[in-house]
């Protein structure tokens, strides 16, 4: 969720308290190399040594919090962020990370509060508006979420994630502005499967099946959206009675061992009047998910 901050800035602060300049550079390079190589244990050790020498160094607290987060030591990472805020409650980076952490913990109110702390210091901080938008979205207040995402892209026109969120909220509202937002995201990341899939899903919901199918074909197999793209393609062909094509896509989706794909293969064979084959796939569906009521009812 978090990324390590700018090493140059962090380590200039780290080694500003005297010492030989060459030694500071060596330690700086060591920490950079250790984190890049994934040796988080050694990086943590060096950072703790720095804190032992200067326990009030916020930059060290922040970098150590990031290292601990990479190690999935969430509680101690959070603790170092809180200590950082105790040292300087107006620190923008500290409050951004805390807002993000609270968002991860599904604690919307403190997430919004920390984002507001950022905006008191930097009223044009796009990330703070984005985090507020995510927090409001989590509690179901899509109007405030939309407003904050819009402000985020006003402050930073290259904010891809904010455009995606704007598109998703607008899509759920059947607002054609969703296409503008997804297109803006695709200008920033032309090959984004996330944006392509979201745009296709909007077309599908609006009954523009041909446009949806064209976009689903652009989702490569390596992407997380591939299964849904194949399944949705099968579903669109099924409701349009293109059973051969539907079966082809559901067969690809069924390779992911998801019950609903097997169920839809059963539906295709049922529509074709092939009851034995339909029963076979309904049973396969139930083997994957014994609570799949529709498949059980079809068998009966």
Report on this structure.
The chain is mainly alpha-helical. The protein has a domain at 1-71. It has 18 helices and no strands. It has helices spanning 7-14, 21-36, 40-53, 58-70, 74-87, 92-104, 108-121, 126-138, 142-155, 160-172, 177-188, 193-205, 209-216, 226-239, 243-254, 259-271, 275-288, 293-299. Helix 12 runs antiparallel to helix 13 and helix 16 runs antiparallel to helix 17 (275-288). It is elongated.
Report how far the terminal alpha carbons are from each other.
47 Å
Please state roughly what percent of the residues sit in beta strands, choosing from under 5%, 5-15%, 15-25%, 25-35%, 35-45% or over 45%: under 5%
Categorize the overall geometry.
Answer: elongated
Radius of gyration: 25 Å
Low-confidence stretches: 1-21
Let me know the average pLDDT: 89
Features:
single chain, mainly alpha, 18 helices
Outline the secondary-structure elements.
Blueprint lengths: L6 H8 L6 H16 L3 H14 L4 H13 L3 H14 L4 H13 L3 H14 L4 H13 L3 H14 L4 H13 L4 H12 L4 H13 L3 H8 L9 H14 L3 H12 L4 H13 L3 H14 L4 H7 L1
